[in-house]
Structure formats: C-alpha cells, structure tokens
Amino acid sequence: MNKIKVNLDKKISASYEIYIGRKILDRIGMIIAKNELASRYVVITDSNVSDLHGERFLRTLSDMGIQADMIEFPAGEASKNVDVMLDIIKKLLDMGVDRRSALIALGGGVVGDLTGFVASTYMRGIPYIQVPTTLLAQVDSSIGGKTGIDLSAGKNLLGTFYQPKGVFIDLSFLQTLPPREFNNGMAEIVKYGIIEDTDLFSLLEDEAKTIRNESMVLLETVIGRSCRIKKSIVETDEKESGLRRILNFGHTIGHAIEAESGYSLSHGEAVSIGMAAAAMVSEKLKYLPSRDMERIMKLAEALGLPCGIPDSLSTEGILSRLKTDKKKQGDVINFVLLKKLGSPFVSSEAPEEMIRETINMLKGR
Ligand code: ADP
Ligand code: ZN
User: Half-sphere exposure of 352 toward its Cβ, with a 13 Å CA cutoff?
Assistant: First the structure.
C-alpha cells in the first residue's frame, strides 16, 4: 500500500493522506478505527455500489469494532440534486447523527460530491472520508475537496471546497467497473501524462494494450502517479485561482461536446476529444510540434478513447456552448494549450474561426 500526503495551508484546512493499494479494505478499517475521527460513521453510497460492495464494506468496519450505518440513494448523475441531498440529511437526523459523527463516501464522483457537500453543511460541517470506487473518482474527483450538486440551471452550481480527512483507494473495486466507466478514468490519466508527466505518457504508450486487464501492479503505479500530480496541483492552488486551471486541459471543448451530445458521450470520451482539439489548436498556433499532437491522438485511440467528433453534433452548437462556458472571461475563450508535452499554459489566443476549423477537422476523423 502506498501513502501520499496532501499538505494544505493549515489556516484553511488540515492536511490528509491518500492511501493506495490492492485489497486494502481491512487496512482501511484499521486506519479508520485507529484515527478515532468520530464515535460513529455513516457510509453514503449509491444503489449499484451498495449491491456490489456495500455489505462487505460495512462488515469490514464492524469487524474493526467501528459503529457504522449505511444510506443509499439511486445510482446516476440525476441523483446529484437538492432533493436527494435533503433526503440524506433527513435520514441522518432520524438516525441521530451529530457532530461527533463522520461520513464515508463509498462510490464514484456522484457519491463523493454529494457526500462531501452534505458533510460540509450538516450541523455546520462534520468530517468525511473518501473511498472512491470508480477509476475517475480515484484519480480525480476524490482528491481536492470539491463538493457539490447540480441545479436545473447547470451542473455543480451549488457546492463548497471541503477537504476529506482521508482518501482510501482500493483497486479491487475496479474489478466490477464497466469498461466505459474505466475509460472515463483513463482519459484523466492521459491528461495528467500530457500536462505534467511525460514519463507517465510514455508508459501509457508502451502499455496501452495491457493496462486494462493484465497488470494490477501497473495500474497501481499509474493511479499513484496521477494522484501525486492532482495532489501537488491542489496543494499549490486549493481554491482554483490559477495553476489548478491546467487541470482543465481538454475540458473546455470537452464540456461543450459532452453537453451538445446530450450526455450520450461519456465525460471521458468528451474529454478525450477535447484533448485532441486542444492539441490541434496548439499545433495550429505553432506551439505544439505536429509529432506531439499525433502522439496524443494515437495514445487516446490505442486506449479505446475517441478523438473524432460525431457528425451528428452541430459545430455551431458546440461553439455557442463554448461561448457560454462559465470559465469564459469577458469576450475571450480561455483554453489550456500546450507548448509541448508536459508544458501547458492558459491562453486566449485561439480565434473563433480556428476553433471552428478544428471542430470540423475532427468531425472527419
Ligand atoms: P464517476 O463520476 O466517478 O464516473 P459515478 O458516481 O457517476 O462516478 O458512477 C458511475 C457509475 O458507476 C454509477 O452507475 C455507479 O453506480 C457505478 N459504479 C461506481 N463504482 C462502481 C464499481 N466499483 N463497480 C461497478 N459500478 C460502479
Ligand atoms: Zn474531467
């Protein structure tokens, strides 16, 4: 089991550890028991994760003498709303959960975001722990303390920055994860390789075919490196004022494409296309060498991630969504571009016409 420490500014929030390993549930129970964070725990999870792993997880905790209950809600992004949040809060109140209690988020990003948000507001804030069960949550959303729910006006419009007391990443959860969900996480891992870690990028190129099934050891390495990158960016920029924006690489166009597809493209698929688009724009602006752009597209495709935009999506529709993106400042669209692999920068240089051309070129792929 590996351990990574996230060092945050003590004036804002406390530091915490990320534990990574295979079949570490027992160890998770032990560490929780030893830390005595709370006198009782409530595991929050969704219906899928509860069916697959809920019972075993609760048993592990009770074997360690930890008092724990479980609350489950229907699986799916549609549950990340105010009604489900209030429902969870009502259940916590009925259970008599008070400030000496802590929550445990067992699940993917939806569970993590919702549980974090409830934890940050319930009785003015109680501690919580992340146990991410999707690859995406393991390498991305469980680290960094972003919490939130969706409103009808848009995603993640209500939320807080609230750091967990610990993150426990057990690779054995991934064995039940559907391939498309696995790919969601792979897209973010490719992103880390592109923006920060060219060795990780090369490793992915070498192992694209084997990473999925054959080697849990390799996957553990790759998850560990991804977590380290995310955590060091979060350490320097906890509230996303500057550096943390490079984590949006591939996400500006990606979000526009994801929404324009009516969410029929998964987050990972849309981000993969968005990364291809950002690489292409970087190349058109004469920053990124063509060879690097080709390596990015080739790696995505080798991992089973798309780079082409489906013909059915409207170019103008994507463009208009880009312009209303909340990350837009003034009249310019800010993109994370690349000088080369491993060197991202934020720029508003790309003219609308170049973005249109890029979208149309990717439609032909
Ligand atoms: P993310 O944002 O991390 O992709 P979600 O919370 O949207 O996560 O989860 C995606 C889907 O995967 C949900 O239907 C969830 O119930 C399911 N899921 C989460 N973890 C697992 C797992 N270990 N095995 C199988 N399905 C899982
Ligand atoms: Zn993402």
Answer: 10
- Please identify which of the residues 80, 165, 230, 245 carries the catalytic annotation: 230
Task: State the pLDDT at residue 244.
Answer: 83
pLDDT band at 80 (very low <50, low <70, confident <90, very high): very high
- Does residue 77 have its Cβ closer than 6 Å to ligand 1? yes
CB neighbours of 104 closer than 8 A, spacing ≥ 6?
32, 41, 42, 43, 44, 68, 115, 128, 129, 131
CA-wise closest residue to 247 among 262, 232, 258, 257:
232
Q: Is the pLDDT of residue 68 over 80?
A: yes
Q: pLDDT digit string (tens) for 127-153?
A: 999 999 999 999 999 999 999 999 999
Cβ–Cβ < 8 Å for 284, 349: no
> Residue 262: is it exposed, middle or buried by C-beta count within 10 angstroms (0-12/13-18/19+)?
exposed
Looking at ligand 1, which atom is closest to the CA of residue 112?
6
- In angstroms and rounded to an integer, the radius of gyration of the C-alpha atoms of the chain is 20
Regarding the beta carbon of 108 and ligand 1, being less than 6 Å apart is answered yes
Residue 173 Cβ inside 6 Å of ligand 1? The answer reads yes
Atom 5 (ligand 1) nearest CA: 108
Q: Which domains does the chain carry? A: 2-177 (3.40.50.1970), 180-362 (1.20.1090.10)
Q: Tell me if residue 292 falls in helix, strand or coil.
A: helix
In this structure, the strands spanning 154-161 and 146-151 are antiparallel
138 lines ligand 1 (CB under 6 A): no
Global pTM value: 0.94
Q: Of ligand 1's atoms, which has the minimum distance to the CA of residue 134?
A: 20
Among the listed residues 53, 80, 146, 231, the single catalytic one is 146
CA nearest to 133, candidates 113, 111, 161, 159: 111
Length of the chain equals: 365
Indicate if 188 belongs to the active site. Answer: yes
Tell me the one-letter amino acid at 96.
G
